[in-house]
Amino acid sequence: MAAKKKPTVAIVMGSKTDWPTLEFTVKTLKEFGIESTVKVMSAHRTPHEAVEFAENASKNGYKVIIGAAGGAAHLCGVLAGHTILPVIGIPVKGWSLDGMDSLLSTVQMPKGVPVATVAIGKAGAINAAILAVQMMAIADPALKRKLTAFKKNMAAEVLKADAELQAEIAG
Ligand code: RP5
Question: Of 11, 12, 56, 141, which has fewest CB within 10 angstroms of its CB?
């Protein structure tokens, strides 16, 4: 049996309640053959663990960190402050304000400490995975080929949907 590949992406979410969103990130990474580590760590409830994880992430073989949190979403900023790895932030739709609170507290980082913030919720969860793949593909020709095939498939699906719609309209 082939040995399991070492995870290159770390996914850190503020609460287990974020998992229904983050499942899409793990699934999308798997589609590209990328293994990830998934952790629950909070900037507010377990600040020491979050900092320690970020500080050791590069040494532990991760190439990208994907963070996700809702509400006063400080997690991605804290992670980004303690690593030189790229940090992608997913604003999770929280219990109020439709995720606008999460979006603004993830995206509005001060200069010098970027968090590459994606869309709120499911689309962002999927895009975070794709963006991580794109970052890693810079130095990985096999991943580059997978991304090219992914884009081609996506375009083919849209063209097919358009052809179906045209046929429906024409009766
Ligand atoms: C954030 O608070 C978490 O990322 C989660 O989105 C939100 C609510 O957490 P729970 O109260 O459900 O644990 O830190």
Answer: 141
Pick from 32, 3, 24: which is nearest to 68 by CA?
Answer: 24
List per-residue pLDDT tens for the chain, 171 residues long.
Answer: 667 789 999 999 999 999 999 999 999 999 999 999 999 999 999 999 999 999 999 999 999 999 999 999 999 999 999 999 999 999 999 888 999 999 999 999 999 999 999 999 999 999 999 999 999 999 999 999 999 999 999 999 999 999 999 999 999
Per the CB < 8 A criterion, the answer to whether 133 and 34 are in contact is yes
- Whole-number Å distance between alpha carbons of 103 and 114: 14
Among 11, 12, 18, 21, the mutation site with the greatest number of ligand 1 atoms within 8 A of its Cβ is: 18
**CB 69 near ligand 1, within 6 Å:** yes
| pTM confidence score | 0.95
